[in-house]
Amino acid sequence: MADDPNSKRRRPAACPEAYTDSILLFKVDVDDQKLVNMNAGDLRDHALFLGFNASMCLPTKDFPGLKPNCAYVTNESWRQDFLTKFGSQDVGIWNFETKILEGLGNLEVNQSTKI
């Protein structure tokens, strides 16, 4: 996919496959045994944590420091460490309303593996 010139984030030239430009969200319909596509606002007052090993969903009312209707994304692929000199990986907060991956403040991407 080509870079969107109006996008707030640019695809890293050294490792374009480590760039998050969308997240598809599904829920499991146990009765019908199928996946159901969710809309942007369906998480409401919950936050997702998505990582290489595990994922979880937490209510933001119990954790006021979390942003509702967002996914905290870490360590997209362990293989990225071997693809570039600096281990390029997307780490940030995916906002399902704006469809933008926000940064984590002063945390550098290289430090994400030390968390």
Walk me through what this model shows.
- This protein is mainly beta and 115 residues long.
- The chain has a domain at 25-103.
- Helix content is 3%, strand content 25%.
- The chain has one helix and seven strands.
- A five-stranded mixed β-sheet has the order 4-3-5-6-7, with no helix packed on it. A two-stranded antiparallel sheet has the order 1-2.
- β6 and β7 (100-102) form a beta hairpin.
- The longest helix is centred in the last third of the chain and has 4 residues, at 80-83.
- The protein starts with 25 loop residues before the first strand and ends in a 13-residue tail after the last strand.
- Mean pLDDT is 75; it is low at 1-7, 10-14 and 111-115.
- Counting helices, strands and paired strands, the structural category is mainly beta
- What's the average pLDDT? 75
| Spatial separation of the terminal alpha carbons | 31 Å
- Taken from the alpha-carbon principal axes, the silhouette is globular
Helical segment count: 1
